[in-house]
Design brief:
The complex is a heterodimer. Chain A is mainly α. Chain A is built from 11 helices and 2 strands; from the N terminus they run ααββααααααααα. Classes of the chains: A mainly alpha, B mainly alpha. At the A-B interface, helix 1, helix 3, helix 4, helix 5 and helix 6 of A face helix 1, helix 3, helix 4, helix 5 and helix 6 of B.
Chain lengths: 297, 282
């Protein structure tokens, strides 16, 4: 009898320790990255780091503006491409599609989410780059190699399709059937019901999905690195090259130990990503949890 | 009236079109990889390590990267599972009646899930510098373990929640301790554990950014935890950056290998999930 109780106590403590240890990783990452950024922050202020566009590590000049803009452009394009497509797809899957079509579609969305980032990158190089270079860019600019923020945005958009579709579908399913039926029985068409009832009801969920997708797109590294051109100048059009923050970290890890403050600068870039993504994730999770709770209530 | 009907038709076609684009993108990607990769595919690719002059187009394969990836993904999944099973049990069994705390924990793991792999890579690198570990198999496994723990915890958590409460109550009412009850639940969710392993393995084997700083790269198959290890995604990335056509082609073939591995894992996971949910409804 004693032994059983001791066992129970022991395992309960062990589990508590493991849980606390694995959750505290969140805190430790933040502290570790901040600690490593201190040398850089001593030399330059947050304002200087974020707004300067001069990137000359050898001279000790670290301006993150071009990289921040690169990240914003790529993410912006990805959301503009992905959100309408995914919203329409989710609406179709939940509201219109016959059960048979649903059964076929859902596995493919899951399969797409399983494809590794590097494969998206290879696809971007093989398919999107030539597409932009030969067919899209010639209509707008004199010359483009295809390596551009547009390519990065499109590749990212496809990468976040499964995430957005699954969350929005989930949200759409939580909308009470009675609401839809009330609208339909008043003579509204299905689309009118979607436009005036469903979308309005689902708005917080759609916002949460978008915020989550943005944070996913922010941190995506290798696929974007492969198609963006990686030029440390802030882009001014969709056909310009860009150099997002994660790509900066990934591309320069090799030489970061040989130049003073360089490692600190790269860890600062990681810290920036961490902070932004942390905030965005918390915001979207809070919205989604509220929705869930309202559903249960 | 005509206008309303037209609007309905218009948006409905738009939805079908969007669905085709979203669903079709999967085929477009896999199709492109197969189309470009198959011409360069041969037995050497998966049975040989890079020979001398591999990177200027001479003979060899990417066996080193395949094995390296399997080691890292396997090691990280096992290590992750050892940590995640107790965590998932703890959240569900030992935190009864503390709704706020358990939900906060769930959210923390969701947020951890959202942290990009490049940040885990950078953080793993910091840990390695701190403990004086060089880029190695061990370093890679540490970083990737951090990456897969949130996936494992959240998947296991979902699975444990499908276990009927009556089962737990029955165990408890017979005088079982919570740990004995946990053992009963563990037996129930065995298929779910496999699904979780597959999901984490699939994520781990495809990730680049986390192993970039931590695992290093080597043309040989690592024989100890302290040797650097090549990984398949990184091999693809390096080969694609080459100026030699033959090497680039091998990059496509390596991409094909990775795609096939990941597709098999994902399909297996889905079949298991389906089987498991059938169990549940009975």
């Amino acid at each position: 009898m004693q032994l059983r109780l001791i066992k129970d106590k022991f395992f309960s403590k062990l589990m508590l320790v493991l849980t606390l240890a694995s959750v505290s990783v969140l805190l430790v990452i933040g502290i570790g990255l901040y600690y490593k950024s201190i040398p850089l922050l001593h030399k330059l202020s947050w304002g200087q780091l974020l707004t300067s566009s001069i990137w000359k590590p050898l001279k000790g000049l670290f301006g993150f503006y071009p990289f921040i803009m690169g990240t914003l452009w790529v993410t912006g394009i990805a959301i503009i491409v992905a959100l309408p497509l995914c919203l329409l797809t989710s609406l179709y899957i939940v509201e219109y599609a016959p059960a048979r079509v649903k059964r076929i579609l859902t596995p493919f969305v899951n399969l797409l989410s399983g494809i590794p980032p590097v494969i998206f990158g290879v696809w971007g190089v093989l398919f999107i780059i030539p597409l932009i270079q030969k067919f899209i860019a010639p209509h707008f600019v004199d010359f483009s190699t295809g390596y551009s923020v547009l390519a990065g945005g499109i590749v990212l958009a496809v990468m976040i399709f499964p995430l957005i579709v699954s969350i929005i579908s989930e949200v759409l399913r939580t909308i009470p059937q009675e609401l839809k039926e009330a609208s339909l029985s008043l003579g509204a068409t299905k689309w009118e019901t979607i436009k005036k009832v469903i979308l309005r009801k689902a708005l917080p969920g759609i916002v949460a999905a978008t915020v989550l997708a943005i944070s996913r797109a922010f941190g995506e590294t290798i696929a974007v690195l492969m198609v963006c051109g990686n030029n440390a100048v802030a882009p001014h059009s969709v056909f310009d090259t860009g150099y997002p923050l994660p790509a900066l970290i990934a591309n320069n890890y090799g030489e970061m130990m040989s130049i003073p403050l360089y490692d600190s600068a790269l860890m600062f870039a990681a810290l920036l990503l961490f902070i932004i993504i942390l905030l965005f994730n918390i915001i979207s999770r809070v919205i989604l949890t509220r929705l869930e709770r309202r559903l249960v209530a | 009236m005509r206008r309303r009907k037209f609007e309905e038709l218009f948006f409905r076609s738009l939805m079908v079109l969007a669905t085709i684009v979203v669903g079709g993108s999967f085929f477009l990607i896999v199709g492109t990889i197969f189309y470009k990769g198959i011409p360069y595919m041969n037995l050497d690719m998966i049975t040989k390590i890079p020979g001398g002059g591999f990177y200027i187009g001479k003979e060899g394969g990417v066996l080193n990267a395949i094995i390296g990836s399997l080691y890292i993904a396997g090691g990280a999944s096992v290590l992750g599972l050892i940590i995640s099973v107790p965590v998932a049990l703890f959240i569900n069994m030992y935190m009864d009646g503390q709704k706020f705390l358990s939900n906060t924990l769930r959210m923390a793991y969701d947020v951890l899930f959202g942290i990009p792999s490049i940040v885990y890579g950078a953080f793993g690198f910091l840990i390695m510098v701190y403990f004086g570990i060089r880029a190695s198999l061990l370093g890679g496994i540490i970083a990737v373990t951090l990456l897969v723990i949130p996936i494992l915890v959240r998947t296991l958590d979902e699975v444990i929640r499908t276990v009927p409460l009556e089962l737990r109550d029955a165990a408890l009412s017979l005088g079982a301790t919570r740990w004995e009850m946990a053992k009963v639940v563990l037996r129930q969710i065995r298929p779910g554990i496999f699904t979780a392993i597959l999901l984490s393995f699939g994520r781990a084997i495809g990730d680049v950014a986390s192993v970039l700083f931590t695992a290093g790269f080597s043309d040989n198959i690592p024989t100890s935890l302290h040797q650097p290890a090549a990984t398949l995604p990184l091999a693809i990335f390096f080969q694609l950056g080459s100026a030699v056509d033959e090497v680039q082609g091998r990059g496509y073939a390596s991409a094909l290998i990775l795609t096939i591995i990941v597709l098999i894992i994902t399909v297996l996971a889905q079949i298991l999930t389906k089987k498991f949910s059938k169990h549940k409804s009975q």
